[in-house]
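Hi everyone,

Forwarding the result from last night's run.
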Amino acid sequence: MSHLHASCAQSVAGFLHVLLENMSQGVLFINMQGDILVMNQTAQEYLQVKKLHLPSSFFTHMADDVLGFSMKRWLFSSISKEIKEQVYIHKAPFFVTAKRVQIPVKGALILLEYDRKHLEKTGEEKPIDAILERASVLKKKEKTRLFAKSISRLKKGMCSLVSAVEKAVGCLKPAEPRIVFSPIQAPLQKALRLLKKDAFPEKKIRLDLRIPEEKIYTWIDPCWMQRAFHNLLVNAMESFSGKGVLTVTVFTQERYTTVTISDTGIGIDPSIQKNIFSPFFSAKDAGYGSGLYETKKIIDAHQGSISCQSHLGKGSCFTLKIPSARRL
């Protein structure tokens, strides 16, 4: 009989898990020690966190006030009133409802749900966000493998569209970098690591890195420079039709820190070289024409310069020059 009870309990637990994962409402349960015991997929999406191995500390992965109130103060104080807050995460408003419960584990049961009335009034929910949300729900419910694949392709296509729109909007916004005194190697190394994640398995490219170990400090926005370097590295990788060499060089010359990114790819047609930094100009069928334009804006915002030398069939070399001293 005990075996039957255990089997029944497992079935119920499995059913509850499926129910929890398919809810459109985010569900969190945090015990009095601050450990997350329950967190469904919707809650992960709302809070923009990767799937956690539970139990896991709330404070390790999220800011104390990410839900609009201090979680530490609420968990560890004697206050037990219900909290209802409207917060803005993921570019859409939603309500947070939190209650103290004892079930038999004492802790905070937190529900997250979109504030639909606010969205209807302001129109803040983007149509693309709505499509993606409904596609996720459909994929969870759909049992037909072929249809589920179609939904996955729909989501992938919509995400590409979102990325393209965000790039276009980013190109049109004025550059406002946060300048700090930082080694130029740091954002460059991050961009190189990101390039490896992008993966170009069909291409056999040799990296030739000529980056000095001694740190070269200059006035930059590290995040902006990482984006600039990444754009140029991806651009170089896409220029290869097969084998090749990608060379990255860093050095100081007079009052400038110079970074060159050169490739032995197909090169750029001389007739279009003057247009490569123009907004939304691309010689690639799948390109949006935002990468090099964004890169030039970033370098201009650093009071630097970017130039390109290219020979058709031989390759291209982009040279970035950033002032070593900040100009006020």
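The chain has a mean pLDDT of 76.

Cheers,
N.
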